[in-house]
Write a structure and sequence with these properties.
Layout lengths: L2 H10 L5 E5 L2 H9 L10 E5 L4 H4 L2 H11 L4 E5 L1 H5 L7 H6 L4 E3 L5 H8 L4 E8 L4 H13 L5 E8 L1 H9 L8 E4 L1 H7 L5 H7 L2 E4 L4 H13 L5 E4 L11 H10 E8 L3 E10 L25 H5 L31 H7 L2
Parallel strand pairs: 1-2, 1-7, 3-4, 3-5, 5-6, 7-8, 8-9
Antiparallel strand pairs: 6-11, 10-11
The protein binds iron/sulfur cluster.
Length: 345
């Protein structure tokens, strides 16, 4: 079937109303950039899921970074978007203006030179991310150990996706009829990682590329596969069936599965990774991130992340909250649903 026929089918679809979730923040961006919702029948709703690592990190993690940045001889090292995410009281950028020691980097490996240049300061990397990012931290740990650098630590909030999708699928009040599986994550996990979920919930999962035509083909497949427990890989150029063994070996060397706290979903067993006991000297106090303190009482990030609300349903969207003045994590990150709905509205 060519793309014109797919668009015709999707725009004229008149069957049961379907709610299809894209889990990956980069898919959210591509869907909005390509105007895909405008090509679909009103009976096919695309909802955005918990695929933005910054967005799912709880406010208590930001608070901990803020506190650490104010400690003597301690420096927080992080990417730019994390600096702007509101914690329960303030964002790292506010603490920085009050004397907090915060450095923004473009690559985690920049922390090596920072640490070598000031051996009296402990440099703490704000290590958030999904399956795609954790192997990079493992390579960084290899380098830190081989170069015998003793003043680098990590505050980790590393997450793995299947258990979080399991929680979403089990919520009867938030019925989801199929998933565009997280694209980048699937490169590491392999498409088969979603088979147990497809079977457990009798749902289709489609692994998709990021181009507009690829996403339309994936949505078409999800509509056609309704009622089937199936994982279909339409992104074979990058995603295999099985887990990436090299990445797994790297991650297994330093990290062990753990519960993780997700904004909007709470603590989920086996949905995170923490440093193994033998590497705990690199941990800056990552355990026991529990309560999700609301950064802003009016912010609906918790509902947006789980697909229970569209960003358009948030009363602050585009009124008080915009990328210049974000009220929640979902408006900060380039992978956040609110950010992408805002810039492509
Ligand atoms: Fe939060 Fe702003 Fe999104 Fe509303 S629009 S949910 S306030 S980030």
């Amino acid at each position: 079937m060519d793309i014109k026929e797919i668009v015709k089918f999707l725009s004229e679809y008149d069957g049961r109303e379907l709610r299809l979730m894209e889990v990956c923040g980069t898919h959210t961006a591509a869907i909005r950039e390509n105007g895909i919702p405008s090509l679909l029948s009103h009976k096919i709703k695309l909802i955005s899921g918990p695929g933005c690592p910054v967005c799912v990190t709880p406010a208590s993690y930001i608070d901990r970074l803020c506190d650490l940045s104010l400690q003597d001889k301690t420096c927080i090292v992080t990417f730019g978007d994390m600096i702007r995410v509101p914690g329960s009281k303030e964002a790292l950028q506010n603490v920085k203006s009050k004397g907090g020691n915060v450095k923004m980097v473009y690559s985690p490996f920049e922390i090596i030179d920072l640490a070598k240049g000031d051996r009296d300061t402990i440099f703490i990397f704000a290590a958030v991310g999904f399956e795609t990012t954790t192997p990079i931290y493992a390579v960084l740990l290899d380098k830190i150990i081989s170069e015998n650098i003793e003043n680098i630590k990590f505050l980790t909030a590393l997450k793995t996706m299947p258990a979080a999708i399991d929680v979403l699928c089990s919520d009867a009040d938030n019925k989801i009829d199929g998933f565009i599986a997280p694209g980048h994550v699937s490169v590491i996990t392999g498409a088969d990682a979603f088979k147990p979920l497809a079977e457990k919930y009798s749902l289709p999962f489609v692994v998709s590329g990021f181009k507009g035509e690829e996403l339309l083909a994936s949505i078409y497949a999800l509509v056609k596969l309704q009622g089937q427990s199936k994982v279909l890989n339409l992104y074979k150029s990058a995603v295999g069936d099985r887990e990436n063994e090299k990445a797994k070996a790297l991650v297994d060397k330093y990290f062990t599965p753990s519960a993780a706290y997700w904004r909007g979903m709470g603590s989920i067993e086996n949905s995170g990774l923490e440093l193994k006991e033998e590497y705990s000297r690199f941990d800056a106090g990552s355990k026991n991130l529990t309560e999700d303190l609301p950064a802003n009482k009016g912010c609906s990030c918790a509902e947006v992340i789980t697909g229970r609300k569209s960003p358009f349903d948030c009363p602050l969207f585009a009124k008080v909250c915009n990328p210049e003045n974000p009220q929640g994590a979902c408006m900060v990150s380039g992978e956040g649903a609110c950010f992408n709905y805002f810039i492509n509205r």
